[in-house]
Design goal:
Blueprint lengths: L5 E8 L2 E5 L5 E2 L7 H7 L3 E10 L6 E7 L9 E6 L12 E6 L2 E4 L8 E4 H6 L30 H4 L2 E7 L3 H17 L20 H11 L10 H12 L6 E7 L18 H9 L2 E2 L2
Parallel strand pairs: 11-12
Antiparallel strand pairs: 1-2, 1-4, 2-3, 4-5, 6-7, 6-10, 7-8, 8-9, 10-11
Helix pairs in contact: 4-5
C-alpha cells in the first residue's frame, strides 16, 4: 500500500466522518468523505488516503476509502468483465480490463483512459468532484466554461464486475506485452478532429477487449477468442480452466449500489457458443 495509507474504522458523528485507528487517532476528519462509503462501510474497517483531486464543494483533497480485505498475493492475473452502464449507449457491450500483480490495465477510445491504475482507484474512487456525474444531467459533462464532471468514479459502485482470477501465468511477460501496447497508444498522433481520442481505436481490432485478447494469445493461449467484452471474458475462462498448470477462479463482484449510478446489466453475447460456455462456468462466492 501507499505509505500515506491509514487503516481504521469508519465512524460517522453528525455531519462529519473519519477513520479511527487502533491507537484512537482520527484521520481525515477535516476532509470530504463520500456518502457512498458511509452507506456501505460505516462501522467497518477500511483503508484510506488522500487523492490529489479536490472536491468541488469544499475545495479540499478528496478521501478514497476501500475495504480492509485480503487480496491475492503476486503473481496473479484478474480479467474483468464490467457489465454495461445502462445510461450510456457506448457502454451497451460492457468493458474489459486486466489486473496483473495489482496494476490494472485499462484501454479505451479516450487517450487519458489508456492507463495503469491502482486497485483502489479503479474500484473505489468517490463520486465527488471531477469523478462525479453532472448534477445537471446525471451523466458525463464537460462544459465549455465550468467544472468538468467525468462520471468516472469507482467501478464497483458503477457496475457489477465478473472476475476471472488466474494463478500460474507468466505475469512479467504479460506486463511487458501490455506496457508495450500502452506505449504504442500514447505514441500515436491524435486525430486532429478528436484530439482527446485514440486515433487508431477500433471496436474490431484495437479496443479494450481485442488488445487484452492479443496479449493473452501472445502469452501462449491462441484459442482465447473474442472481439467484444463478454465473449472475451467467457472464452478466456473456458480456455484457461482447461490448463492444469493454472489455478483458475471465476466469481462476481456485486455492484455496490449508490444513488449516482443505476444498476448495471450484462451485455449480450455475440458468439452463441459462449452462451453455452457461460452456463458451464462455476462461479464461486467472492
Amino acid at each position: 500500500m501507499n505509505p500515506t495509507t491509514v487503516t481504521g474504522r469508519l465512524v460517522t458523528e453528525g455531519q462529519r466522518s473519519y477513520l479511527l485507528d487502533e491507537q484512537g487517532n482520527r484521520h481525515f476528519e477535516d476532509y470530504p468523505i463520500w456518502d457512498g462509503y458511509i452507506r456501505h462501510w460505516a462501522g467497518k474497517r477500511v483503508h484510506g488516503r488522500l487523492l490529489p483531486q479536490k472536491d468541488y464543494t469544499e475545495q479540499k483533497e478528496m478521501v478514497i476509502l476501500w475495504p480492509a480485505e485480503p487480496r491475492p498475493e503476486p503473481p496473479f492475473v484478474e480479467l474483468y468483465y464490467n457489465e454495461r452502464l445502462v445510461k450510456y449507449m457506448a457502454s451497451r457491450l460492457g468493458h474489459n480490463a486486466i489486473n496483473v500483480d495489482g496494476g490494472i490495465y485499462n484501454f479505451s477510445h479516450k487517450l487519458n483512459e489508456n492507463e495503469i491504475m491502482t486497485e483502489e482507484e479503479y474500484f473505489y474512487r468517490p463520486a465527488l468532484g471531477e469523478f462525479a456525474p453532472s448534477p445537471r444531467t446525471g451523466m458525463f459533462e464537460v462544459p465549455a466554461e465550468g467544472l468538468p464532471y467525468y462520471d468516472k468514479f469507482g467501478r464497483s459502485f458503477m457496475r457489477a464486475i465478473h472476475v476471472l482470477e488466474v494463478k500460474g501465468l507468466d505475469t512479467e511477460t504479460l506486463k511487458q506485452y501490455l506496457n508495450a501496447e500502452l506505449q504504442i497508444i500514447h505514441a500515436t498522433p491524435p486525430d486532429p478532429r478528436r484530439p482527446a481520442h485514440y486515433a487508431d481505436f477500433s471496436i474490431w481490432t484495437r479496443s479494450c477487449s481485442t488488445i487484452i485478447r492479443d496479449c493473452l494469445q501472445r502469452l501462449g493461449y491462441p484459442k482465447i477468442k473474442g472481439i467484444f467484452p463478454r465473449d472475451l471474458f467467457v472464452s478466456a475462462a473456458w480456455v484457461l480452466q482447461q490448463d492444469s498448470r493454472l489455478r483458475v477462479r471465476v466469481y462476481l463482484r456485486p455492484q455496490l449500489l449508490v444513488p449516482e449510478a443505476p444498476p448495471s446489466v450484462p451485455g449480450p453475447f455475440v458468439n452463441p457458443a459462449n452462451l453455452f460456455r457461460q452456463r458451464q462456468l462455476n462461479y464461486d462466492r467472492p
